[in-house]
């Protein structure tokens, strides 16, 4: 907190504090000039133009307080100067005209008063003040930071201050620079609070529980989760190849979709199963724990073989009540009359594949070659597949690129996708490209969506 028009209310400097946070060090007594005002006049005085820049205006501090020496008498109007001589001529003139007398009032500030930013600015060396890490990302009760090396000697103090100043945070971790290359979760160290890494987090009306040290989670992807889920029709079936703990799968199921959700990480699979139960979508989500390539190759046959339950609209509580009322009155509930065709039909066709493993998802696309050519050459099943897949599924594949201009990014991504599919994507393949987010100064994350080419799925591509 910087000097405020003559009153410096910043915490005392504590540049020596490094390993342990000493909260008791942070206290200050600050004398300020106070004008005695009668309780009936306070509102008028607070609005008076000549006092506009004179009344004390510090965060969390009232500018009108009881007089400690005379609690039932006049109130004290706190001013942002310490001496009468420092008042502006307009303020002095106004207060004199009202016959005001002055006293000194002592502000008592302690550790609780200052923000995390104020405290860290008092502790960290001058050269580290720019970019001091009072901000953090939170998942449930856990805050995670990404501290640069120069801040590491202060990590415990930083963690403690962040925890003190954010009441919902009980655990603070610092991400280490290594990411588990296979399952994409970060290695991290505890810098403050309890070593409890199992968090509860809400996104898109779903509750997710998971161990942040064992699985991948990124709250920055919530807009992307929402965007893709909004593309799915409630009657459709979605296959999520790299599902994690379910941030696409569960919201999709909540809107009615049938979902096949797969993740190779046993911990992700464990929490995915728990989250399916917890969000009450067991009838709609089928979890699995296999390699993404095997999952892609098998999943169309699995769904043809054992289709997902027919679509049933999920009614809100008020709709549920209206439906019960209609039933009692023996009148048809309007929603029941609509689109009954899609209701009774078990769902045996995948409409969307989701592939959020940006580091390598493109390299899994070769698994789509021939997925609709029956592995055992069984004619009746192959015929059923041909009927079900009159319309081919959409594939939504996430990827990184180092091409920073959209046109070059598209060229780069299309080329890599084409190599894996065995042929370039063309005008008929309904290709679209969406910039998800910038992950580093020269690295962007995209999602390429396209309709799986029929000749790729039936393995009819002839080498170019
Ligand atoms: C970037 S995360 C995405 C998770 C989730 N879909 C999301 O949006 O947050 C990628 C996931 O793919 C899983 N994974 C990595 N390699 C895999 C593989 N070969 N087969 C299946 N899943 C894999 C990881 O465990 C991780 O949960």
Characterization of this structure:
- This protein is of the alpha/beta class.
- It folds into 3 domains: 27-47 and 54-110, Alpha-Beta Plaits; 116-203, Met-10+ protein-like domains (GMP Synthetase, Chain A, domain 3); 219-309 and 346-457, Rossmann fold (3-Layer(aba) Sandwich), CATH 3.40.50.
- Helices cover 27% and strands 24% of the residues.
- It has 13 helices and 19 strands.
- A 7-stranded mixed sheet has the order 15-14-13-16-17-19-18, sandwiched between helices.
- Strand 14, helix 7 and strand 15 (285-288) form a beta-alpha-beta unit.
- It is elongated, with a radius of gyration of 31 Å.
- The model has no long low-confidence stretch (mean pLDDT 91).
- S-adenosylmethionine binds next to loops.
Task: Provide key terms for this protein.
464 residues, Alpha-Beta Plaits, GMP Synthetase, Chain A, domain 3, Rossmann fold, 13 helices
Question: In brief, what are we looking at here?
Answer:
The chain has 464 residues and is an alpha/beta fold.
Return Rg in Å: 31 Å
CATH topology of the largest domain: Rossmann fold
- Terminus-to-terminus distance: 67 Å
Strand residue percentage: 15-25%
Assign the structural class, choosing from mainly alpha, mainly beta, alpha/beta, alpha+beta, or little secondary structure: alpha/beta
Spans of at least 5 consecutive residues with low confidence: none
The ligands bound in this entry are:
S-adenosylmethionine
Biggest sheet descriptor: 7 strands, mixed
Mean pLDDT: 91
> What is the helical fraction, as a range of percent?
25-40%
What's the count of strands?
19
Looking across the biggest beta sheet, what order are the strands in?
Answer: 15-14-13-16-17-19-18
User: What count of domains describes the coordinates?
Assistant: 3
Shape summary? elongated
Please give the CATH architecture of the largest domain.
3-Layer(aba) Sandwich
- CATH class of the largest domain reads Alpha Beta
Organism: Vararia minispora EC-137
Protein name: Met-10+ like-protein-domain-containing protein
